[in-house]
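Target chain:
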Amino acid sequence: MTGRSAASRLGRSRLCGCAGLGLLPPENSSGPNPISPPRPPAHLPTDNQLVFSWVPRHDWPMNEGERAQVLASFAAQPDEIAELLRYNANDFRHDLVTYPVGLPLVSEAHVAVWETYAAEARQRGPFPVLADALTQLHFPIREGLSQTDEYRDATLRGCAVAGLSSATGLPLVDPDRLELRIHHGLAGSVPVLIARNRADFRQLVQALTARNEPVTVPDSMGACIVAGYNNWDRIRRIRRQWERTQPGSSGELEWRDEFRRLIPQKERYQDRFIILSNSPYSGVPGETFGFGEQEWAALSLTIRLEHECAHYLTRRLLSRMKNNTLDELIADYCGIVAAAGEYRGDWALEFLGLSRLPDCGTSGRLYNYRGEPPLSDGAFRVLQALVTSAVSNIEQFHARHVPKPAPPKLSTRLALAITRLTIEELACPDAQEILERTWERTEKDYVFVEKKSRGASTSGHEPA
C-alpha cells in the first residue's frame, strides 16, 4: 500500500473498497551458542545502524517476554514496549490455512468477467468499456455527490444512469493512455487498471473508493487495491441468465426474491482489482539511484504492481491486508526484487524514509503506518531502528539464499517465510537463524505448480 495515509477515508478504503453500497453488503529449550549481530551490507547506511544491547539467543517463535527483551535492547522504555508489542503483533492467519498449499492460487470468480472487459477494451479502449460496467465512472468528482438521490439510486440500487442530470461522466485528462491488464501471479489472476496521468489516477481512486467525493489522495500514494466492489454489471448478467432459465416467472417480484438469495453470495458480484500510477515509487526520484526518468517510471510500475500483488496474496491466503509496517516490509520486498532482480536494502530504506535517520519526519512513508491510535514519538523512533535492522537482516538472508535474478518461486517463498515473524524477530541479532527456520518451514508449506506462462492480457496504449 504505497503511500497510504493521510486521508483516513482512503486508508479505510483499502479493505472495504466500496463498502456501504446499500443493498449489497461490503466484503466486508536450549540451542547452540548465539551468533554475532549481523554486519550491515555495503549499501546500507552504517550510521543508521543501532548499537545493540545484547540479548540472549531466542527460539522461534518468540513469546511476548522475549519480544519485550528485544525492544528493551533497542532502548524502548516500558510504556513504549507495551505500545510496540501491540503494534507489532503478527496477525497473519496461518491457523486458518490447510497446508500444504499449491501456488498459484485459483483465480477469484470475478476475473472471468474482467477478462471479457480486457478483450473488448482491445477494440474500444479501456475507459469506454469500464464506464459501461462500473457505475461510478458515469459521475464526476464533486463534494456531496454521494448523498444525492440520483447517485444513490445508481450506485446503491443499480438504477440506469441514462438521463440522470448528474451523470456527466468522469472527466479524465488522458483516457486514451489508460491500460487494462489481467496480471497472472501466484495469488491468481487479478485485474489491473494503470493510469499514466497522475490526475487521472487521483480521479479513479476518488471515484472507485470514495464514492466520487474529492478526498485527498496523498502524493506518495501510487496504488490502490479496490476490494469488495459491488459490480452491478455482473448482477445484470446474473439477472439475464436467471430470466433465460425462468420463462414465464421472471417478473420484478420474483427477481426481488432471487436478489435476496444472491446477496449472501458475495463472490458472485463483488470484485477486487488494482489501480496503479506510473509516477516515481514512494515519491523517490530515479536520480536517487542513478536512473533516468523513463527507466525509473517503468521500474516504479513493476515495484508498485508486485507490491500490491503481495498484499493481494496475503489477503487471499492469510486473511490479512492492512496498513502496517510488517505488511509494507513484505510488499516492498516483493516489489524491489521483481524490479531489481535482488533485494536492495538501500531502496527499501529510501522508500520508507529511513535513509537519513534520525530524520524520518512526516514525509517518510513509514510515517503513514504509525497505527491507530498512532504510536508515540518515542515508540515510533524505536520502530524506525527496528525496521532498519530488519531490512539489513532480510537483505543478508536474501543474498545467501536467492540467486540473481531472483526466481519468483524463491522470492515468494522468502516473503511467505517473513509472514510468520514479527518485526522484533526480524530485527534481533538472531534473525538469520530465525529466518532459516521459517525458510525451511515454507519449503514444506507451499507447492509451486509449474504452469506455462500466459504473460499478461493487456489493452490500451503503451507510452511512447
Q: What stands out?
A: Strands lie at 101-103, 179-185, 188-195, 223-230, 270-277, 446-448, 456-460. Residues 238-268 form one domain. Confidence is low (pLDDT under 50) at residues 3-22, 25-56.
